[in-house]
Amino acid sequence: MNFVALRMLTGDRAKYLGLIFAIAFSTFLLQNQTSIFAGILARTGSQIADVTDAEVWVMDPATQYFEETKALKDTDLLRIRGVAGVDYAVRLFKGLPVARTPAGRFSQAVVMGLDDATLIGAPRKMLMGSWERLREPNSIVIDKAGYLLLFPDEPLELERTLEMNDHLVRIVGISDASAPFASFPIMHARYSEAVNFQGRERSQMAFVLVRPQAGITPKEMSQRIEAETGLRARTRDEFRWDCIRYYLKHTGIPVNFGITIAIALIVGLVVSGQTFYLFTVENLKQFGALKAIGVTNWRLMGMILLQALTVGFIGYALGTGMAAAFFEITAHKIATRGIVLLWQNVVGVGVLMFLVVIGASLLSIRRVLVLEPATVFRG
Amino acid sequence: MNTISPTDTLAVQCQDVHKHFGEGDGRVQVLRGVNFEVSQGKLTFLVGPSGCGKTTLISVIAGLLDTSGGDVHLFGNNTEKQAPNERIDFRRRNLGFVFQQYNLLPALTAAENAAVPLLAAGMKRREAVDRARALLVKLGLEQRMNAYPSKLSGGQQQRVALARALVHEPRLIVCDEPTAALDHATGEAVMELLASSAVHPERAVIVVTHDNRVYHFADAIAHMDDGRITHTEQRN
Ligand SMILES: Nc1ncnc2c1ncn2[C@@H]1O[C@H](COP(=O)(O)OP(=O)(O)O)[C@@H](O)[C@H]1O
Ligand SMILES: [Mg+2]
Predict the structure, then answer these.
(1) Residue A155 above 70 pLDDT?
(2) Are residues A226 and A355 located together in one domain of the fold?
(3) Do A246 and A256 lie in a common domain?
(4) Which one of B55, B93, B107 has the shortest CB-CB distance to A377?
(5) Which of A35, A173, A183, B155 has an alpha carbon within 20 to 30 A of A258's alpha carbon?
(6) pLDDT in tens, B24-74
């Protein structure tokens, strides 16, 4: 009877394609929106993830997330170094100066000032030049996206100059830093130079980066630092999540995406669920005839489930293909780099669509089970 | 319970069968004590005015509806005493149906439609459709076996429905106004085919009809009025 079920399904071409379209469309929309949502949120802490030299971030207790920081005092650094188990602790400057090109283009930039002696926190993924050249005077490393923003349509090359607060700097390296939340260029420089890029504010020691000695976990380390200094210490992952949570709580991003995701869900649930249910209802006479002929309820349930799973699977596969194609294109674009289709979202949406399909078929099955076979004699 | 004794010549035996729908003010008493016997090897017509309960009676006989009182025996089995699954199984093996509105599945070809009772019994698709084809040839539809119902005339559709009722060689065939939707000549042809192909010494055929122009095919005619069988005339 399986082929009978499939023929019933495909026999009504318009409804069959409509069902597949509805499922494919909502699958695409859900995977697309949840992945972009996750990608954008992940960007809020991407500069934290890029620092692989240190596992613990220490900051003023008033600092809640990466973008907005309250400066630490120089004495804080000494106190942190005094905590037992600290292998090294180095300063990290974070500033938002305006960078200008000789051609007159300008943009606000995220500048990370690295400890002069160790250059801890330097970008490890270099496309051109090298981070060691930051030791040269008046040098910076800029990320590729930032470079293309300031020097549009020009080839990547070193030794170009930028001006920040009357300081002329040279580009000695081009990095592949992860995309930041705001699409500013990401620049790395030595601490002693970076503090001068911004003017007015003197010192801006936003963070102290700490590596614990062997045998001490980052979590233990951060707890010790917090206990002994009263500063805020977070492991790399904790701090990333702090940033994500901050944006979830204090911005319109979740609401915006929430609305789209809700619409996609409703389209998915209502349109595909409802269409499938109506499909069964319109075929009730056929199911009634099969019942009269002696097809068992189990068999009929199997037929409906097969129909539902078939359209569900085809629609889901098409939608996932569409989402994959979408991200294949956008993941290579500068503005949307790093935003990818996450397997978690593919699986999650798959489970969701499965539940929708099962829900719709349960409603359909109920209609067929309560159907009186004697109705086949009635016109 | 499920066995059929070959010595039983009575296919259907209804004793004081009652049936009503609804309760209270909405209660409709449709069958008011039906006594009715149908023999094997015969074409029995069930006739009577519209609304007198013919469809209800054959639904009860076919086990599609429960009685509200009285007994129905098919080949000596009281189907109402069977477990639900047993009853569906009994119906699948022993009954064939022809409906006024044909009730073919629009997405299946003529041959596939005729094969449905075999498929329901678990037969492989190829074998089931082959057997249905052989039967359709006998019923004069060899040119139309791969056609979909929407491409068939009413008479052709009813012949496919007849093949579907016969393909699994059931012991009892019930037909509800099989010619009502057809013009006279086509109805006559379908009835003739029914008489010649369905009737078999070990099978009973019950045909509900309004159409007195086809009475000459009947071996017996049961007259029904107001929820009772008033009299039965034997022919030939
Ligand atoms: N499910 C039902 N509920 C209520 N009344 C019904 C139902 N089925 C049939 N009836 C009533 O039973 C009577 C007999 O119907 P039916 O058996 O179809 O008669 P016939 O086939 O002789 O025309 C009619 O009055 C009809 O309205
Ligand atoms: Mg009727």
Answers:
(1) yes
(2) no
(3) no
(4) B55
(5) A183
(6) 999 999 999 999 999 999 999 999 999 999 999 999 999 999 999 999 999
A379 vs B contacts (CB less than 8 Å): 100-101
Strand, coil or helix: B158: helix
* A10 contacts B117? CB cut-off 8 A: no
In this predicted structure, the answer to whether residue B128 has a pLDDT above a threshold of 80 is: yes
Range of the domain at A119: 50-250
**Chain A interface includes B19 (CB < 8 A):** no
Which tens digits make up the pLDDT trace of B69-94?
A: 999 999 999 988 888 889 999 999 99
The string of DSSP letters for A34-58 reads HHHHHHHHHHTTHHHHH--S-SEEE
Angstroms from B181 CA to nearest CA on chain A: 11
Residue ranges of B 72-131 with Cβ closer than 8 A to chain A: 85, 88-89, 91-93, 95, 97, 99-101, 103, 105-108, 112, 116-117, 119-121, 125
Average pLDDT, chain B: 92
Looking at residue B68, its pLDDT comes to 93
Rounded Cα distance between A183 and A212, Å, is 33
Tokens representing residue A360 in the block: 């719709």
Phi/psi at A158 (nearest 5 deg)? Answer: -85, 175
Residue B50 CB–ligand 1 contact under 6 Å: yes
Q: Which of A230, A250, A270 is the C-terminal boundary of a domain?
A: A250
Q: Give the total number of structural domains in chain A.
A: 2
Residue numbers of A between 354 and 373 with CB closer than 8 Å to B: 372-373
| Claim to verify: residue A122 and residue A212 sit in the same structural domain | yes
Using CA atoms, how far apart are residues A214 and A212, in angstroms rounded to an integer?
A: 6
Q: Which amino acid is at A138?
A: N
CATH number of B10-234: 3.40.50.300
- Closest among A300, A316, A233, A239 to A21, alpha carbons compared: A316
Shared domain for A230 and A300, answered yes or no, is no
- The ipTM is 0.91
